[in-house]
Amino acid sequence: MSDGALEGTVLDEPVDDGEHPRRRRVAPFVVAAVAVALLALFVVLFTADASPNETADSPLLGKVAPDVTAEYTGGEPFSLSHRKGSWVVLNFFTHDCVPCIQEHPDLVAFVDQQDALGTDGAEFYSVVRDSTRDQVERFFEQRGGDWPIVYDVDYEFVNGFGVSLVPETWIVDPNGVVRARFISKVTADELSSTLQSMREGV
């Protein structure tokens, strides 16, 4: 056999440099690690959404609430400073915000609970941003609820409280001091228990 034929035969044979088997052994571990990481991410996201909401920090906590005004139901002016003497709960929302829609049944339940307390119950107001009156009226017609709506057309409330995303819910005490801020969805039980603790001075 000539040198050329021998040379061609050697080149046609597969070269085993020891790298390919190792790559094949490592690949399943890489896939498994990625799968575990994705699973952990889903668990964290699910747990974060399912866990009870907690009051969020704000430089306004413990200070007098901003003296902001806007129009509310019936076209009457609404001034937050004029609500002193009552517990006030403000819920910022828009008609097409998915978390706002999801929490709405709890807000209906909370308002019913406060109404049952008579004069001891908190006043509840929805502060609307970026939604028209027609859109808001249809929202309540479809989902229920009957309480005053504040139309924050000039963003006095949004800017005063530093609200960037909705929903957000704030509690202001009878002295006009901001006591709590909830970001994202809230439940009727969270709001009621928080208010009760504050009334009792806990």
Helices and strands in order, then pairings?
Layout: H1 3-12, H2 19-50, E1 69-72, E2 76-79, E3 88-93, H3 98-116, E4 123-128, H4 133-143, E5 149-151, H5 156-161, E6 168-172, E7 178-183, H6 188-199
Parallel strand pairs: 3-4, 4-5
Antiparallel strand pairs: 1-2, 1-5, 3-6, 6-7
Describe this structure in words.
This protein has 202 residues and is an alpha/beta fold. It has two domains: 3-50; 69-199, Glutaredoxin (3-Layer(aba) Sandwich). It contains six helices and seven strands, in the order ααβββαβαβαββα. A seven-stranded mixed β-sheet has the order 2-1-5-4-3-6-7. 24% of the residues are buried. Residues 4-11 and 38-54 have low confidence and may be disordered.
Runs with pLDDT <50, length 5+?
4-11, 38-54
CATH architecture of the largest domain: 3-Layer(aba) Sandwich
CATH superfamily of the largest domain: Glutaredoxin
Topology as H/E string? HHEEEHEHEHEEH
Radius of gyration: 29 Å
Secondary-structure class: alpha/beta
Q: How much β-strand is present in the residues? A: 15-25%
Number of strands: 7
Largest sheet: 7 strands, mixed
Based on Cα principal axes, name the global outline.
Answer: globular
Q: For the record, what CATH class of the largest domain applies?
A: Alpha Beta
- Helical fraction equals 40-55%
Strands of the widest sheet, in order across it, are 2-1-5-4-3-6-7
Task: Enter the CATH topology name of the largest domain.
Answer: Glutaredoxin
If you average the pLDDT, what whole number results? 80
Measured distance between first and last alpha carbons: 98 Å
Number of domains: 2
Per DSSP, the total helix count is 6
